[in-house]
């Protein structure tokens, strides 16, 4: 396409990547950008100056990457996601640009401690959990493998709330992560698009009898681009994450300013900018709020406008769209994109319905992340009609054409039409966003094998019958760069000594470790690494909770959002039973149990669970009879940066969701990759992890998905599970009788009642099998050689769960995209 003569010459003279050069850049940045005399600089100033020095080097590569993509006629992949759970950026960028060691040394020579400096950075927590972290891993992998892949999202001023316990119950505090500015973002004042809300649709009748529609009036808000360069590891590729921030338009200002109400004008302005103010902290529940719908449309409309502008700027026509553009919808949050692209193609570019629809379907693909019914987004037709009137019209037309097709294939099957319709007519009329995403996409994927099967058999069974070829599985993965190289530098070094570094790009090569998994010398080194990692975690625990934990015992870790289906209560029941056995004088193997995770602010049950865990922990941790044989800690404010400390220290990974509910899980992968053994149900990707690591190297327990369905059908009262189980009965009684609380009997009584009489996720039914699995784990842990063999075997066999494999699966099965590496991969420099 637009082949410019000079695509390889750097736009600037390249900056040095050695220690001396970096030192110079950091010192210069301190004066020129931070505006401080190095003698007066604080640690935060050093963080900023270092960030500027790295960003200078990344932006060079960003420009080169872009030139190459523009010159080579590549297909671009756009990832649309409401969430990116990125974490800290400085260390990631240093690592991926290959200048971490040099920078560490440069800072040392400047009298600064690297580890202290990087810890000043706030996490970019623009996501809730699994879905948002997956998006961040995918962007990193796109860049690392050299795919022309770009993220679009929202620049929330406030990310995921900060969690505190006051003293036991969760309290949320705002996460004002941009408070001190952000050296990683490039505001693009020229990339501003007006986004309309409300208003009305005007019908225009042309002379040839055709009808044309336009969307007019209402309210306009500007979406302004903020670019975050995303560096690939060991390559020169630097891709881009474009986040949209809301700005009031000048028109908007003028209206009020002209009326002379200056104060009102300024106040309203900030209201219109509230669209990108805050991330909704709900994971796996749909929020029916108008502001949320506006957020979704806001970032989708800006992104599609941007994508089409780039497409035409590069000289392509609309007919080229399917060859040049793939758009992945990360869950249904951006599903309104289907209607918006139709609107743009017809109302702005004059395409006919049929042609526009053909193009749309070839461009979009949709990833589903959850089967939980309460997470499925629907929007009241009334609300959609008011906020996005033209889109509502288009959705009706899509639905009409779609249902006509279904009618032809299944004549007289009215029930089927109701089930498939984009509009749910039961209990008020609602638009089913998942149905819009399915009909508007050429491929629909689940995120683990079981999940995809369940999508086909349950949630999307009728769609699967219509279009079986559209459903594919893409099992999730995790980036080894963050979750191994950065989180576990000692294990990385140890692997390097034994099997080299190729695994960093091709994680399957960890298999080369297998011949040595039983090697005593290797095992000893592995154990030393674990121990060091546990010490690092013990420090974090002491700093955040004041609790001291020993590092010579089994670390049993459950870190994830708090949800009934994830069953933190199952772990808690086990902890209480261990406590009782210790107090009964039994010789129980020592362990440290670690919880981490946030509850959605309005999810009272999840908050009750947090509170009770904290109260139980408090009793156990202060019981002199227990001493250091059992400790239980709930680490507050679990976030990406904390995860990088917790995961490498874990021995046991708790993946104990009720089978059929966890779409995939990705924490399960991070922990196993770091040599933790999984105690888990046959749910989500646990099944594939078991297949990969082998049955002897994982502790599987509990009902399978079909057993859960059968159990539910039997409709037994949960309480019945207590019969003949004195230890479990005692545990439940202790909770309901308020043994662990001095002032809130009500919450404990309620939780006990819930277990006895509701227990919707079958905690009691699975408990005996769970306890038995934990005992298997204890027995193996008592034989260090066997444990270490199993742990090292896990590491050696986790290669499949690399995000690079996931991204290649998307590229091959869905996007038809190929990598375009800017330079051969290399280590460092
Ligand atoms: C699954 N979040 C994990 C992970 O695929 C899976 C829902 C509604 C609104 C906001 N956020 C959500 C999710 O549904 C979500 O995070 N799902 C998770 O996606 C990545 O590994 O099993 O629960």
Automatic annotation (TrEMBL):
GO molecular function annotations of the record: glycogen phosphorylase activity; pyridoxal phosphate binding
A Pfam match: Phosphorylase
Annotated EC: 2.4.1.1
Statement: the UniProt record of this protein carries the keyword Glycosyltransferase: yes
One BP term from GO: glycogen catabolic process
Alphabetical list of Gene3D superfamilies matching this protein: Glycogen Phosphorylase B
InterPro entries noted in UniProt: Glycg_phsphrylas, Glyco_trans_35, Pyridoxal_P_attach_site
A cellular-component GO term for this protein: cytoplasm
Domain of life: Bacteria
Keyword list, A-Z: Allosteric enzyme, Carbohydrate metabolism, Glycosyltransferase, Pyridoxal phosphate, Transferase
Keyword Ribonucleoprotein: no
Catalytic activity: [(1->4)-alpha-D-glucosyl](n) + phosphate = [(1->4)-alpha-D-glucosyl](n-1) + alpha-D-glucose 1-phosphate
Modified residues (N6-(pyridoxal phosphate)lysine): 670
Annotated segments matching region Disordered: 1-20
Required cofactor(s): pyridoxal 5'-phosphate
Function text: Allosteric enzyme that catalyzes the rate-limiting step in glycogen catabolism, the phosphorolytic cleavage of glycogen to produce glucose-1-phosphate, and plays a central role in maintaining cellular and organismal glucose homeostasis. Phosphorylase is an important allosteric enzyme in carbohydrate metabolism. Enzymes from different sources differ in their regulatory mechanisms and in their natural substrates. However, all known phosphorylases share catalytic and structural properties.
Classification via NCBIfam families: P_ylase (TIGR02093)
Similarity comment text for this entry: Belongs to the glycogen phosphorylase family.
Protein name, entry field: Alpha-1,4 glucan phosphorylase
Organism this protein belongs to: Thioalkalivibrio halophilus
């Amino acid at each position: 396409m637009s082949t410019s003569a000079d695509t390889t010459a750097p736009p600037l003279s390249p900056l040095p990547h050695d220690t001396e050069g970096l030192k110079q850049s950091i010192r210069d940045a301190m004066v020129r950008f931070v505006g401080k005399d190095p003698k007066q600089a604080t640690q935060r100033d050093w963080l900023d100056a270092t960030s500027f020095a790295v960003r200078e080097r990344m932006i060079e590569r960003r420009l080169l990457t872009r030139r190459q993509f523009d010159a080579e006629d590549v297909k671009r992949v756009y990832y649309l996601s409401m969430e990116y759970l990125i974490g800290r950026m400085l260390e990631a960028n240093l690592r991926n640009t290959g200048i971490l060691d040099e920078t560490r040394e440069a800072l040392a020579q400047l009298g600064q401690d690297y580890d202290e400096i990087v810890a000043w950075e706030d996490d970019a927590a623009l996501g809730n959990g699994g879905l948002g972290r997956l998006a961040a891993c995918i962007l990193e992998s796109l860049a690392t493998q050299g795919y022309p892949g770009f993220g679009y999202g929202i620049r929330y001023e406030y990310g995921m709330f900060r969690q505190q316990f006051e003293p036991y119950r969760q309290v949320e505090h705002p996460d004002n992560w941009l408070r001190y500015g952000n050296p990683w973002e490039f505001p693009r004042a020229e990339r501003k698009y007006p986004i309309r809300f409300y208003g009305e649709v005007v019908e225009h009748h042309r002379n040839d009898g055709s009808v044309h529609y336009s969307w007019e009036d209402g309210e306009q808000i500007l979406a302004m681009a903020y670019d975050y360069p995303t560096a690939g590891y060991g390559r020169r590729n630097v891709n881009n994450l474009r986040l949209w921030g809301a700005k009031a338009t000048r028109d908007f200002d003028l209206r009020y300013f002209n009326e002379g109400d200056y104060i009102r004008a300024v106040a309203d302005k900030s209201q219109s900018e509230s669209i990108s103010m805050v991330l909704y902290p709900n994971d796996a529940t749909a929020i029916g709020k108008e502001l949320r719908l506006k957020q979704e449309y806001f970032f989708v409309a800006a992104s599609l406008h941007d994508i089409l502008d780039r497409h035409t700027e590069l000289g392509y026509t609309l007919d080229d769209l399917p060859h040049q553009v793939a758009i992945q919808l990360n869950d249904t949050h951006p599903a309104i994109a289907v209607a918006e692209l139709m609107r743009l193609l017809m109302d702005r570019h004059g395409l006919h319905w049929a042609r526009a629809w053909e193009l749309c379907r070839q461009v979009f693909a949709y990833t589903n992340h959850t089967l939980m019914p309460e997470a499925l987004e629907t929007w009241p037709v009334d609300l959609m009609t008011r906020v996005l009137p033209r889109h509502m019209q288009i959705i009706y037309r899509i639905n009409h054409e779609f249902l006509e097709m279904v009618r032809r294939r299944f004549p007289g099957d009215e029930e089927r039409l109701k089930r498939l319709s984009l509009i749910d007519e039961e209990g008020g009329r609602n638009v089913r966003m998942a149905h819009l995403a399915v009909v508007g996409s050429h491929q629909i994927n689940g995120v683990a094998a079981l999940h995809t099967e369940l999508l086909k058999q349950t949630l999307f069974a009728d769609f699967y019958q219509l279009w079986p070829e559209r459903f594919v599985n893409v099992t999730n993965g995790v980036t080894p760069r963050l979750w191994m190289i950065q989180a576990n530098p000692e294990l990385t070094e140890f692997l390097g000594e034994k099997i080299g570094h190729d695994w960093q790009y091709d994680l399957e090569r960890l298999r080369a470790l297998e011949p040595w998994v039983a090697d005593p010398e290797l095992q000893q080194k592995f154990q030393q690494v674990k121990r060091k990692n546990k010490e690092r975690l013990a420090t974090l625990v002491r700093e955040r909770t004041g609790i001291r934990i020993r590092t010579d015992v089994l670390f049993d870790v459950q870190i994830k959002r708090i949800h009934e289906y994830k069953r933190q209560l199952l772990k808690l029941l086990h902890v209480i039973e261990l406590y009782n056995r210790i107090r009964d004088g039994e010789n129980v193997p020592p362990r440290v149990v670690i919880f981490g995770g946030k509850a959605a602010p309005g999810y009272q049950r999840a908050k009750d669970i947090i509170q009770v865990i904290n109260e139980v922990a408090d009793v156990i941790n202060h019981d002199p009879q227990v001493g250091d044989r059992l400790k239980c800690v709930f680490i507050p404010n679990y976030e990406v940066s904390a995860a990088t400390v917790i995961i490498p220290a874990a021995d046991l990974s708790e993946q104990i969701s009720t089978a059929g509910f966890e779409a995939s899980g990705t924490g399960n992968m991070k922990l196993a990759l770091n040599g933790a053994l999984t105690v888990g149900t046959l749910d989500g990707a646990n099944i594939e992890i078991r297949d990969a690591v082998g049955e002897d190297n994982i502790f599987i327990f509990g009902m399978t998905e079909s057993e859960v369905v059968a159990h539910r059908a039997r409709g037994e009262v949960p309480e019945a599970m207590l019969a003949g189980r004195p230890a479990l009965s005692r545990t439940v009684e202790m909770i309901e009788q308020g043994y662990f609380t001095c002032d809130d009997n009500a919450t404990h009584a309620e939780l006990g009642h819930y277990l006895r009489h509701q227990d919707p996720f079958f905690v009691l039914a699975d408990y005996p099998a769970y306890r038995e699995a934990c005992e298997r784990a204890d027995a193996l842990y008592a034989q260090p050689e066997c444990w270490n063999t199993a742990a090292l075997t896990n590491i050696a066999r986790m290669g499949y769960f690399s995000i690079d494999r996931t991204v290649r699966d998307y590229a091959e099965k869905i996007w038809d995209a190929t990598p375009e590496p800017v330079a051969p991969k290399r280590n460092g420099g």
